[in-house]
C-alpha cells in the first residue's frame, strides 16, 4: 500500500489582470503550501481497474473527479496498465479555495510517473496537470511559487520564513466560475501589489481582487475576515475565490482564535524542501519525478528581499 499526503495552498495575494479569448482570466498570485492535507491510500489490485472511494459525500467518487482524471491522463498518454484501489480521506473541503482537488490530482500524477518509471519532461507534466485544473501544476513544485497566466505559468521564488497560520473554513462551497462570471475588470492601470511585496516582504500591501465579489455573494465570509482584521495581524485574506480565510498569528493567541472561531485550524507554511519531504511514500522512497529538472526550477527562482 502506498500512502500519500496531498497538501493545501493559500494565495498570498491574487490579482486579476484581464480576460482571455478562451473565457479564462489571466492572473498573478503567490501560491503558498501549508501544512494541512488530505491523505490518499493506493493499493494495487489484480482487476486492472481503478476503484476510487472517499469520505466526502459531496464528491462523486465513482465519476469524473480529479483523481480519476489524473489516472486517465497517465494511462491514455503512456499506454500503461495497473489496477488500483484508491481511498481519499478529505480534510480540505471542495469549494474552499485551498486547492484540495488539484492537489489530489498532482500527487497522483507524480506517484504514477514514479511508479511506472516514466521519462516525462516538466513541461509535458505541467500541460497534463493544467488540463485537469489550473492549480494542479503549482503542486508539482510546492513552497512559495509565483503563478501567472491562469495559474500554470510558474516561477519558484525564495521560500518565506515559516509563518504560523490560522485557517477558518465556513461550511460554504464557492463556485469559482460563478465568482469570475460576476467579476468586472477595471480599465484603470494599477501597480501590482504582488510585485511590491516581492521587493519589500510587506504583507500589508497584498490584496485578493476576488474578495469583493465573493463577499457580495456570501456576506458571512466577509464577516469572518472583518473579525480576523481586529487581531491587527500582518495579513487576513480569503484564499482563491473562497470560502476559506486565513490570517497570520503574530498578534493573536490560539485561545482567542479558538474562542472566536470554533473549528479553526492552526497550521504553518511549508517550504519547498519540507513539502517534497512529506508529500508521500513513493516506490523509490522519495518524490523524484523531476530529478535534476525540479532542482533547475528551484535554482532559477528570483530572490525576494528578506
Give your account of this protein's structure.
- The chain is an alpha+beta fold and about 300 residues long.
- The protein has a single domain, classed as 2-Layer Sandwich (Ribosomal Protein S5, domain 2), CATH 3.30.230.
- Helix content is about 30%, strand content about 25%.
- The chain has eleven helices and ten strands.
- It has helices at about 65-80, 100-115, 120-130, 140, 175-180, 195-200, 210-215, 220-230, 255-260, 270-280, 290-300, and strands at about 1-20, 25-45, 50-55, 85-90, 145-150, 155, 165-170, 235-240, 245-250, 265-270.
- Strands 1, 2, 3, 4, 5 and 6 form a six-stranded mixed β-sheet that branches. Strands 8-9-7-10 form a four-stranded antiparallel β-sheet, with helices on one face.
- A hairpin with a 6-residue loop joins strand 8 (about 235-240) and strand 9.
- The radius of gyration is 19 Å and the shape is globular.
- The chain starts with a strand and ends in a 7-residue tail after the last helix.
In short:
The protein is 32% helix and 25% strand. The chain has 306 residues and is of the alpha+beta class.
- Class per helix and strand makeup: alpha+beta
How many domains is the backbone divided into? 1
Number of helices, where a helix is a run of at least 4 consecutive DSSP H or I residues: 11
Low-confidence stretches: 281-306
Indicate the CATH architecture.
Answer: 2-Layer Sandwich
- How far is the N terminus from the C terminus? 42 Å
Which CATH C-level class is it? Answer: Alpha Beta
**Alpha carbon gyration radius:** 19 Å
SSE arrangement, N to C: EEEHEHHHEEEHHHHEEHEHH
* Fraction of helical residues: 25-40%
